[in-house]
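Predicting holo structure, zinc ion bound.
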Amino acid sequence: MRPVPQPTALSQPFWDACARGELVFLECRACATRFFPPLPACVHCLSEDVHWRRSAGRGSVYSFTVMHREPSPGFAVPSVLAIVEIDEGYAMFGNIVGYDPAEVSIGLPVEVFFEELANGLRLPNFRPRAT
Ligand SMILES: [Zn+2]
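Done. Tokens:
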């Protein structure tokens, strides 16, 4: 069975947002750095004055790999795992879904959509978008 994310106290607001169909990230009030994944302090200045912001869920492929062997049972292959540069100025891992892996390229414009998992969580994935 495909493993599913296990929310922590730190990541729960992210998963709650995904359940609403929203992608969110953390922003530092002290220096305005935006980052992901969630951490208790700013990755730039270590301020703990960070807050959640909503993302439009649009970005582009920074780098990617095509997986031909499932990392554990339950994953579809081939599949594309990418680092996506989100327009608001941070990056995150995500799967590029609904696209021929041979056609994925660096710089490909993508947008988020949410996949419902076996434990009821909604996982953000990405799909190509028209510029
Ligand atoms: Zn900061």
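Residues 110 and 128 are 4 Å apart (CA to CA).
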